[in-house]
Amino acid sequence: MTASSLAARLTRTPRPYHSGRARDAAALLGDLPPELAEVVIAAASISPYLMNLLEKETEWFIDACADPEAGLRSVIETVREPGLADPAEALRQGKRRVALLTGIADLGGVWELEEVTGALSDFADAACQAALRASLAVQLRRGKLPGLTEEDLASGGGMVVLAMGKMGARELNYSSDIDLICLFDETRFGRDDFHEARAGFVRATRAMSGMLSDITAGGYVFRTDLRLRPDSGVTPVCMAMEAAERYYESLGRTWERAAYIKARPCAGDLAAGEKFLATLRPFVWRRHLDFAAIQDAHDMRLAIREHKGLGGPITLSGHDMKLGRGGIREIEFFTQTRQLIAGGRDVDLRLRGTLPALQVLARKGWVPEDAVAALGDHYRAHRGIEHRLQMIQDAQTHALPRSEAGFDRLACMVDMDTEALKADLVARLNAVHELTEGFFAASREPTPLPLPGDHQFDAAVIDRWLSYPALRSPRAAAIFARLKPDLLARLAEAGRPDEALRAFDGFLAGLPAGVQLFSLLKVNPQLADLLIDIVSTSPALARHLSQNAGVLDAVLGGDFFSPWPGQAALQDMLEETLAHESDYETRLDGTRRWAREWHFRIGVHHLRGLIDADRASVQYADLARAVLSVLWPVVTAQFALRHGPPPGRGAVLLGMGSLGAGRLTATSDLDMIVIYDPQEQEMSEGRRPLATRAYYARLTQAMITALSAPMAEGRLYEVDMRLRPSGNQGPVATSLASFKSYQMTEAWIWEHLALTRAQVIAGPQDLAQDVETLRRQILQQPRARHEVLAQVAQMRARIAAAKSGAGPLDAKIGPGRLQDIELFAQAGTLISGRACRDIGEGIAALPDAGVIGPREQADLAAAYGDCWTLQCAARLLSSAPLDPETLGAAGIAFLCRTLQHDDLESLLSHMSQKCSAAATIIDRALREEAPGQTEDDGP
Questions:
Q1: Given its phi and psi angles, is residue 64 left (phi above 0), alpha (psi -120 to 50 degrees) or beta?
Q2: How far apart are CA 432 and CA 449, in angstroms?
Q3: pLDDT for the residue 451
């Protein structure tokens, strides 16, 4: 063991959290020194992400432990080498290695905060340079960069990538996005070549961003964000430096000045980048003492709090360590504001890093030294917690856990008692808030704004609109200024105008760009009523619309209000859409855009009463099945390019739960099982053949990624595969023979109950038929009524002990509600030996099975219908449980209209009575059948 090794420099050790992962990690580490092995094992047991990295990079990591700094340098030097055969894969491998080494060095206390963030930032620089060089090389070979040669690749040919934010300050967090601004020096090109050169640089920028952020089987490098450039809603992703200069000189705002404090050239023509930053110095650093920046920064803080819903007292559950009160952003704003005030007159204050800038501010007398010492200590602690939150799943999150288990996991990472950790967090957050809040001036008092009619809105809400991203560009602001009187007049006509205004404010705050939407509303004012209706009624649909405003284009199409086309027609439409896409990634994005418009249409139709809950649920299911049916062959074909065609007869997607039954809500995830038939074929036949079991496991993961990965166009669906044999412990794909054997000899009753709603959604027709035949065979086995009902009673008791309803508007969880009735109805299906999937048919089977009488069956069916209607409506309004106390007037009106009640009190009373009656029916039927609980009653 050398003095430079990881093992020799450990200062802390996290505690193990998950014993199974700890054992798996220990098996990988060989003869690693025990003290280091203890840290790695504990880290892997806490973090599934670190465990995954360790499995992939064990050999390299063990070697790097001898000298972690040398290991880091080797990775960076490798990706910087020109002429890499596969730069994208090299970058992904490099990111895995840096993330693993950095995570262990951080958790073990080997590297301090600056070394951790510096390592991540140095690799990000190298990755940007490699991706830019590879992307420019493609354009150069195609002759799209006039006047440039191979020798220009090293310097970017006049193009520079500016690292902004945390990357610019070399403060990247563990799972950070990287904010980039891409520019090119237009003086290197003649007038006739300018447009061709700009187009080439734009294509190279997009390719660079894709190489860094696209998710593949090897992972991704960095999520990239190019939106900090001037007027990002309308400008190209790579701009001429002169155009950017003109923008900042005439239209630049305080937040952009603050952003450029940390700006740094990181790739391409570094000299040109430094020259550009020099031209911006008068914009960033004002010659006079700029105390107005305090008010601007304070208003930005308030806007962030309002936008993110982070106001109010500090509570730990879910608290945002970055943007919440007392968080990281408070310290950064505090520091940057003081830099802006005096940095024009004192060049010593023009530092990128937060901690170095704080030290200089103290030395120069702008901030008391004791405040700087405290803020520096809290900043380090906050960033450490932020890193650990992100290490768990490589998620760009800053939110503290919402559960005790989550805090226990976090406490293991920092080797603290859970309650001590909580107390420390509360103390630090409050201390930061108290230290920073007093330095900001109070907000300006808003003046009342006169409106048409007698109503006056809160002017403070309207005043902040111009600070939102959608109104950053002059063009967007000008169009909106003309729209605003009409919008306010329409809002004033709402039943509760102030509530409608707040809802519209939330929508506008989430809108990333406004020119296209505002232009659309200007030309088609009838859309304003629809927009206000949506944002006032459904926060979930409003959030979707704010991020995907382009779906409003579909409203103007001639078929938006035409009859529903059905699943088969939807499949044809999607296949035609994808036929025009050139590659796999664009097909995935094309699917997302297409599905988003249809999903939006269903929600609008339901919201406006054009369809009821039952029809909406069928349409959501049609849409999901169409997507799966079209996408499964696309994913399979892409996978086959590398690993060969599917061995044997291929695989089918077996929809479970609501997907299998053909009834989804607006927020349903997709329950699925993958079943394959290898027909004794042991390996695939391709460039990189795989064993059959591994082939289908990886194909399944590719499908899950295709559905749930956050791409440029968002996600499609979340996927849940816990209903597969053996649940999360079983393989993600199951052979037909294994599935049959398991279901016939090992499956629990609950697994047979789940099969009552199973249906093949996609895959080869002959295999689909065999799976359906097997399903029927399983379900039609003779069943003893008392045994099935006894098992159902035990499952029902366990569910009740594990979960409780979220309130009177929770239609799913609780006695006599959806989950309860569905379980009972599936028992009726199983006892009767039917293969029906519909819950209504299962309820109808209960009298035939001798479980309940016809009158009880009718009451149960009525309760289920009302619960489903409420569930479908509630999920359209919000993905979170509805609270009657906070539900807006428009939302209440929608629920009452949907369930045909005059007011919320009547609706709640009706649901309570219906669910109580259903629970009584189920209780009575199961009472004589339920034996005492045992320790081995099932999962």
A1: alpha
A2: 36
A3: 46
* Residues forming beta bridges with residue 651, ordered by sequence position: 676
Q: Is the dihedral of CA 791, 795, 800, 801 positive or negative?
A: positive
Greatest extent of the chain over all pairs of C-alpha atoms, in Å: 90
Task: Please count the CA atoms within 13 angstroms of the CA of 894 that sit on its side-chain side.
Answer: 35
**How many CA atoms does the CB half-sphere of 771 hold within 13 Å?**
29
Main-chain phi, psi angles of 584, to 5 degrees = -65, -50
Question: What is the distance, to the nearest Å, from the Cα of residue 669 to the centroid of all Cα atoms in its chain?
Answer: 14
Its pTM stands at 0.52
d(CA 456, CA 639): 60
pLDDT digits (tens, 9 = 90+) for 571-620: 999 998 888 777 898 899 889 888 988 988 898 888 888 899 999 999 99
Q: Which pair of tokens denotes residue 892? A: 């209440």
What is the rounded distance in angstroms from the CA atom of residue 880 to the CA atom of residue 364? 49
Q: From CA 581, how far away is CA 849, in angstroms rounded? A: 53
Written as six digits, the tokens of 747 are 């499956």
Chain centroid to CA 430:
29
Q: What is the pLDDT of residues 19-64, one digit of tens each?
A: 999 999 999 998 899 999 999 999 999 999 999 999 999 999 999 9
Domains of the chain plus CATH, in order, are 7-151+167-179+187-227 (3.30.460.10), 292-437 (1.20.120.330), 459-555 (no CATH), 567-779 (3.30.460.10), 785-927 (1.20.120.330)
Cβ atoms of 320 and 399 within 8 Å: the answer is yes
Residue in the block written with tokens 């959030």? 543
Q: Compute the distance between CA of residue 892 and CA of residue 890 in angstroms, rounded to an integer.
A: 5
Distance set, CA 783 to CA 56, 118, 555, 787, 846 (Å): 47, 65, 52, 8, 14
Tell me the two tokens of residue 189: 């090109």
Q: Of 279, 291, 306, give the one whose Cα is nearest residue 254.
A: 291
Provide the β-strand partners of residue 733: 674
Place of tokens 């009624």: 537
733-735 and 719-720 beta bridge pairing: unpaired
The helix (H) or strand (E) run that includes residue 920 is: helix 904-927
For residue 450, count CB atoms less than 10 angstroms from its CB and return exposed for 0-12, middle for 13-18, buried for 19 or more. exposed
HEC secondary structure over 575-640: HHHHHCCCCHHHHHHHHHHHHHHHHHHHHHHHHCCCCCHHHHHHHHHHHHHHHHHHHHHHHHHHHH
Q: Which of helix, strand or coil describes residue 733?
A: strand
- In the chain the first and final C-alpha atoms are separated, in Å, by 47
Q: How far apart are CA 213 and CA 303, in angstroms?
A: 29
Query: How high is the pLDDT of residue 934?
Result: 36
Cβ neighbours around 18 below 10 Å, total: 18
Name the phi and psi angles at 449, rounded to 5: -110, 115
Q: Is 320 helix (H, G, I), strand (E, B) or coil?
A: strand
In order, the DSSP letters of 651-710 are EEEEE-HHHHHT---TT--EEEEEEEE-TT--B--SSS--BHHHHHHHHHHHHHHHHHS-
Instruction: Report how far Cα 621 is from the mean position of its chain's Cα atoms.
Output: 22
Using DSSP bridges, classify how beta strands 178-184 and 238-240 pair: parallel, antiparallel or unpaired: parallel
pLDDT in tens, 194-233: 999 999 999 999 999 999 999 988 899 999 999 999 988 8
pLDDT band at 444 (very low <50, low <70, confident <90, very high): very low
Distance CA 918, CA 818 (A): 10
Please tell me whether residue 719 adopts helix, strand or coil conformation: strand
Strands 650-655 vs 759-762: parallel, antiparallel or unpaired: antiparallel
Give the residue-averaged pLDDT of 715-739.
83
Contact assessment for residue 686 and residue 640, using Cβ atoms and an 8 Å cutoff:
yes
3-state secondary structure at position 380: helix
The amino acid sitting at 841 is E
